[in-house]
Write a structure and sequence with these properties.
Layout lengths: L5 E5 L4 H12 L6 E6 L6 E4 L2 E4 L1 E2 L10 E4 L3 H13 L3 E4 L15 H4 L1 H4 L6 E3 L3 H17 L1 E10 L6 H11 L30 H13 L6 E7 L6 E9 L5 H9 L4 E3 L11 H4 L6 E11 L2 E10 L8 H13 L4
Parallel strand pairs: 1-2, 1-6, 2-5, 6-7, 7-8, 9-10, 12-13
Antiparallel strand pairs: 3-4, 9-11, 11-14, 13-14
Helix pairs in contact: 1-10
Length: about 325
């Protein structure tokens, strides 16, 4: 197996693309050859490990130079190019939603379903989950393994950075007094918008259905999931209010123990001292998923667990970090 890592990053100059560069550097991924690819940004320079690289044109790039590609440029780009890369013998990690729901495309959170990577026999496309789903499932998987979750209700409070550079610029302009509204259906500064993505025929938004579809594909196909996704005037960091019904009884101390034993989770749960996660304090280029406000109760003979989850949706588990962890798994499993 070729151990030379020849990596292309499509969308290197975007919000998530730049964070991928940071994660690659921080985790010291040894890359033999690196090629940032783009479209309108061709010729611009980006930096990785103190070396400068010019962004090359996707259309004219020689695919024989690479064996792994990370797509961070949206569904349209993934739909047009990703399968072509795979057909050329290249592993593709795609951060868009384009292929997440295709049955034979693995949707991977390495801490949960690394076997999806281990069983790969040839270069393929690997989907990176929705940012809200990654932090949710990392926190609730140990609970499901021990207590059998049979219903999930979640309300997400999603930062503006999840929509990209244009949304962040619009948010900042509105904070400065500009009233232009282009990215979101309503003003986001000083507001809360109970809509992420488009509405579907069932009156849920596509983002809300993504949480259900992806939870069932990754964690358990039998768990009903109900969600409300809200855009909030926060630059970065997604928060979630989560309510779980379980088959088995538990205690708050047991939930604490489960979470403290889980890689990637940091427990912050001391409400008597106002100690709990917030995006301002904990979603600043952070890798961990932070969990607090844990409550355990019995309602009408049903077992319920409530919790609050916060994570960096761009740098962290929701996007850049998870994609690079998938890359690490491919390397460690000798797939490239």
């Amino acid at each position: 197996m070729n151990r030379s890592i020849n990596l292309a990053l499509i969308g290197a100059s975007g919000v998530v693309g730049r964070k991928i560069l940071t994660v690659l550097e921080k985790r010291d991924i040894q890359i033999s050859n690196f090629y940032p690819l783009g479209f309108s940004t061709v010729g611009n320079e980006i930096e990785l490990k103190n070396s400068k690289y010019k962004i090359l044109d996707v259309e004219s790039f020689d695919l024989s130079k690479i064996n792994i590609a990370i797509f961070s440029a949206g569904s349209g780009v993934a739909k047009k190019y990703a399968q072509t890369f795979v057909q050329k013998g290249i592993y593709v990690i795609d951060l868009s939603s384009e292929y997440r729901y295709v049955e034979d495309v693995p949707l991977v959170i390495p801490e949960i379903n690394i076997n999806e990577i281990k069983k790969l026999e040839k270069p393929t496309l690997i989907a990176n989950p929705n940012c809200s789903v990654s932090q949710l499932l990392l926190a609730i998987q140990p609970i499901h393994n021990e207590l059998s979750i049979n219903f999930i209700n979640v309300a997400t409070y999603q930062a503006v950075s999840g929509t990209g550079k244009e949304a962040l610029a619009e948010f900042e302009n509105q904070l400065s007094g500009n009233e232009d509204i282009n990215v979101y259906p309503k003003r986001i500064a000083g507001n809360v918008i109970p809509q992420c993505d488009i509405f579907l025929e069932n009156d849920f938004t596509k983002e809300e259905m993504k949480i259900a579809w992806e939870t069932q594909k990754i964690l358990d196909p039998n768990i009903p999931v109900q969600s409300t996704c809200v855009r909030v005037p926060v630059a970065n960091g997604h928060s979630e209010a989560v309510f779980l019904r379980t088959e088995n009884k538990t205690t708050k101390a047991n939930i604490h123990e489960l979470l403290m034993q889980t890689d990637g989770i940091k427990l912050i749960d001391d409400p008597s001292n106002n100690d709990y996660p917030t995006p301002y304090e904990h979603a600043n280029d952070s890798e961990e998923v932070f969990v607090g406000r844990i409550r355990v109760e019995e309602i009408n003979d049903e077992n319920w667990i409530s919790m609050w989850i916060v994570a960096d949706n761009v740098y962290g588990k929701g996007a850049a970090l998870n994609a690079v962890q998938i890359l690490e798994c491919l390397i460690n499993e000798n797939k490239i």
